[in-house]
Design a protein that fits this description.
Strand content: 5-15%
Oligomer: single chain
Protein name: CRM domain-containing protein
CATH class of one domain: Alpha Beta
Number of strands: 6
Distance between the termini: 103 Å
GO molecular function, one term: RNA binding
Keywords: mRNA processing, mRNA splicing, Repeat, Ribonucleoprotein, RNA-binding, Transit peptide
Radius of gyration: 38 Å
Length: 347
């Protein structure tokens, strides 16, 4: 009985060629053979086909041609042209304005009350710029004459474009599938944007700029800084789409030196943007106006990274009939809400 039961268990686990009468003589022998069924026996043939390694055929060496036997000596790498040499550090730029992270979203007249990082850490990198970083900007080292700067800009722009030339450029670059496009977000006209514009101007006469977010509230400010910092000219403006022309006499080899910011500097600490008590009102009057504004219906709903070009006009119209105007900014970042409020206060 025991022999038959063991046989019925071991048959599914092992092939019939491995079952032999000696294995059924004792349980211990059966367990031993079962544990070592995959190990090679010392009496096995070392050249057993299932376990013998496959011999790899040696790779024959390809015949070398007479030219390959005597290779030519390696030539020294060609030197780069003089205009492509690696610039020596520290970099020097003749641009007359102070280098800041953003030009359109900051006010140079406001001074911070504190810093979130030590001012000695320059975003241009240690020893890469001959200007000293003061925590907000890198001031220009020398005083540039305004007359000379305006003369250089007018010489690059050349004669004004005719209507036919403007229409041709607008038709070429105003479409959404234009490859020469730069997107402006919450940061507005940043320092590295200037480098991007000049890179596009190497192969294109104009560049398409698409503005989104907070800068679209004051498009006049964006256009001013683009023309002032790059030396170009806005030839087309439609809501948040701009076309910036480089000029007739623009030479990419004579482009200004614009050192890049290697990281975004932390914003300094400024005084409170929205005061608790409005100017000219008492605390009770300010609280009453706020409660009234919270209970009034929203004039319009702002979306994240939207186009706010018509916000100022609608707020001015609403002020004709009401003292308080409410804007729904539930889907806008808190920092963007504060910037929107400050811009509306000044506009």
């Amino acid at each position: 009985m025991w022999r038959r039961l063991l046989l019925s268990v071991t048959v599914p686990l092992r092939t019939r060629t491995l079952i032999s009468p000696p294995l059924l003589s004792s349980p211990s022998h059966h367990l031993l053979s079962r544990s070592n069924k995959h190990s090679a026996s010392p009496h096995d043939d070392p050249h057993d086909p299932p376990f013998s390694p496959i011999a790899k055929a040696p790779n024959p060496k390809p015949k070398q041609s007479p030219k390959a036997r005597n290779p030519k000596p390696k030539q020294a790498p060609k030197a780069l042209p003089s205009g492509m040499d690696k610039p020596s550090l520290p970099l020097h730029s003749d641009l007359p304005f102070d280098f800041r992270y953003s030009y359109s979203e900051t006010d140079p007249s406001l001074r911070p009350i504190g810093y979130r990082e030590p001012p000695r850490f320059s975003p241009f990198g240690p020893g890469r710029l001959d200007r000293k970083w003061d925590g907000v900007s890198a001031p220009a080292t020398g005083e540039a004459a305004e007359d000379r700067v305006s003369d250089d800009r007018s010489s690059v722009l050349g004669d004004p474009l005719t209507e036919e030339e403007v229409g041709e450029l607008v038709e070429r670059y105003r479409h959404s599938d234009c490859s020469r496009q730069i997107n402006l977000g919450t940061g507005g006209v940043t320092h590295n944007t200037l480098e991007d514009i000049h890179n596009h101007w190497k192969r294109a006469e104009a560049v398409r700029i698409k503005c989104l977010g907070v800068p679209t509230i004051d498009m006049d400010n964006v256009c001013f800084h683009l023309e002032d910092k790059t030396g170009g000219k806005i030839i087309y403006r439609h809501i948040n789409i701009l076309l910036l022309y480089r000029g007739r006499n623009y030479d990419p080899k004579q482009r200004p030196v614009i050192p890049l910011m290697l990281w975004k500097p932390l914003a300094p600490i400024y005084p409170r943007l929205v005061p608790k008590v409005a100017e000219g009102l008492t605390f009770e009057q300010t609280k009453e106006l706020r409660n009234r504004g919270l209970n009034t219906p929203a004039l319009m709903k702002l979306t994240r990274n939207g186009v706010y070009a018509n916000v100022v006009e609608r707020v001015r119209e609403a002020f004709r009939t009401s003292d308080v105007v409410r804007l729904d900014c539930a889907y806008v970042y808190t920092s963007d809400c504060k910037k929107i409020g400050v811009k509306l206060r000044f506009l």
